[in-house]
Design goal:
Shape: elongated
Bound molecules: glyoxylic acid, manganese (II) ion
Strand content: 15-25%
Helix content: 25-40%
Structural class: alpha+beta
Length: 442
Amino acid sequence: EESPPRSPFSKVSKAGNIFIAGTMNITIDKERLLHDLNAVSRIGLGDHGSVTRLVFSIKELRSRQLLIHLMTQAGLKVHIDRIGNIFGRWNGGNPKAPAVLAGSHLDTVVQGGKFDGPVGVIGALEAVRSLKENKLPLSCPLEVVCFVGEESSRFGFSTLGSSLVAGVVHIKDLANAVDAHGTKLEDILSSMGIYRDNLASLKRDPASVKAYLELHIEQGPILEAKNKRIGIVTSIAAPTRFKVVYTGQADHSGTTPMEMRKDALVAAAHLIAYIEEASSEYSQMDKGRVVGTVGAMKIEPGVINAVPGKAELSVDIRSISAGAKERVARLVMDRAQEIAHLREIAVEILPIRDETPVPLDEGLLPLIKEICEEKGVAYEVMPSGAGHDAMQMAKITRAGMIFVPSKRGISHNPMEWTDPEDICLGAQILLETIVRVANEKT
Ligand code: GLV
Ligand code: MN
Ligand code: MN
């Protein structure tokens, strides 16, 4: 005996019809959506089903190439900007009107999953493709967007492509963006013809955009725990990030007495423990928790028989509350200095990026709510702990986000999983949101 369907979606998909805005019934092609998502997943596939497509790696470039191919096949007009952001446009209405944009990213963390990013890009592609095939009359153009370098795994710099499109990248932000091999982000940008003097040239004219919509996996446990199939995002917890570099002295591990050491890694260890402590302590459950993470560290010389002379830590602090986040970041920086002082070693704090939590559009939220209610889909209105391209796009246009559940809340991990039916439902709701926003009177 099969268990009953979890939602009204199977009913909807069998009937093949969804009522949209009193005009037409259009559904996405679920098989095609899942097929294309699978095709993306195979690029950069590694051990245990992990996916690695670091920004500007060959794998990531190939995933972009595949998307360009799919967009062209769908008859979208493809525009690629200088950094490689891809815009696939359908002029399904007045071509001069501001466009509704929908998308996400295709780059991943190291050994990540198959859903973080691609669900939003391929979901948007499927939505726009379905609308185009059905020749649904709209009052403005639609664009499927793939932003370059949403993940910060390589340079510590997140939402690179969308930040450039929003015109919010400043040269000082790039100074400390260096990958593990010493390659500077600024140099890569120069190789693409993007220099400090023309950073602003990638900015999209806000007058050409009506709204930005992003479908994404939740990457947390809330929807599953509450048995909801859709999340509607209120705001995004943007990170404060910096590097802390302790420089002590590399010494022989056999001959150097404990009291004579200048061990940079022990200093780092104290700071890491403090970050956990301060983040937990200053979390205000009502106003948003603070989360603090050291996710990467470089030790020199990094061998078993030498006292570590240098330790470089990456610090990532986030909260929905700007005040709470600022306070913890300040405490951590102060403690970093204090530890260095006590241990008589040197410390340097290198800022990477300090961003303010971003509220999403208050008008789009009730619209997505309404669609869920009409379809009888259980939804949750919630903040996002993860960063997204939507937080940059929100600076130049109205931005809205739709979440679908993550199994056990796992993400940035090969075990990342979202039920295919949930992905399809998310794409369908995205489609209906696009239609309503496109046809909204402004
Ligand atoms: C993006 O995945 C982030 O780091 O929040
Ligand atoms: Mn991610
Ligand atoms: Mn993502």
